[in-house]
Amino acid sequence: MKQLIVFSHPNPKSFCGAIKEKVIETYKSLGDEVVVRDLYEMNFDPVLKSKDFEGLQSGNLPEDIKREQGYIKDADVITFIYPIWWTGLPAMVKGYIDRIFLHGFAYAIDENMNIQPLLKGKKAIIFNTSGAPKEYYDEIGMTRALEMTSDKGIFEFCGFEVLIHKFFGAVPYVDDKTRKAMLDEVAIITQIQR
Predict the structure, then answer these.
(1) Phi-psi region of 104 (alpha: psi -120 to 50; beta: other; left: phi over 0)
(2) Which of 43, 137, 187, 193 is 20 to 30 A removed from 32 (C-alpha atoms)?
(3) Domains, the chain, with CATH or none
(4) Residue among 142, 128, 133 at smallest CA distance from 186
């Protein structure tokens, strides 16, 4: 299988970074082809600009958009790894979605105003970390809200089958044994949800 990992965290030694390494290790052990797009390492520009819209209208998209869209087209499964900051997508991830998941690539709207998902057949796995305990997010409805906005509002809207959206809470405050158990869970999820 062709695996694409879209990773976003400014600190490569973060727990998100450990998740990324575990996912890479697991996919490679299964013989999968793995491509990693580390948004910070590649200095991805998350700011949607007027030239992006002009390129979309003229059919002459900026090279960075075309390149990322090519990686998405080629992948069978896209694994997104990023922290939850202030109950949402970090700016880098939101900007990636804004610039790459464009009309005509990720979705279209037909003459009857029906939404046409254009990335059908793609599968998504999402790993998120947060400082807040997961139980707190579950209790106040935030976990469900995050699933609605990202899983439904972005990925399923574009045609992805979301295989799993896994939240790891209180990451900075738990002990190493708990974090190791979380990484073991990442390996299991990565093996069975592909």
Answers:
(1) left
(2) 43
(3) 2-192 (3.40.50.360)
(4) 128
> How many Å apart are CA 190 and CA 136, to the nearest integer?
26
Q: What is the token pair recorded at 21?
A: 């390494």
Task: Please say if the pLDDT value at position 59 is more than 90.
Answer: no
Task: Kindly report the pTM of this predicted structure.
Answer: 0.95
Average pLDDT rounded to a whole number, residues 69-92: 97
Rounded Cα–Cα distance for residues 127 and 26 (Å): 15
| Helix, strand, coil in percent for the chain, rounding step 5 | 45, 20, 35
Q: What confidence category does residue 53 fall into, taking pLDDT thresholds of 50, 70 and 90?
A: confident
CA distance 178 to 181: 5
d(CA 189, CA 90): 23
What's 132's DSSP letter?
A: S
Element (H, E) at 23: helix 15-29
Is the predicted pLDDT of residue 133 greater than 80, yes or no?
A: yes
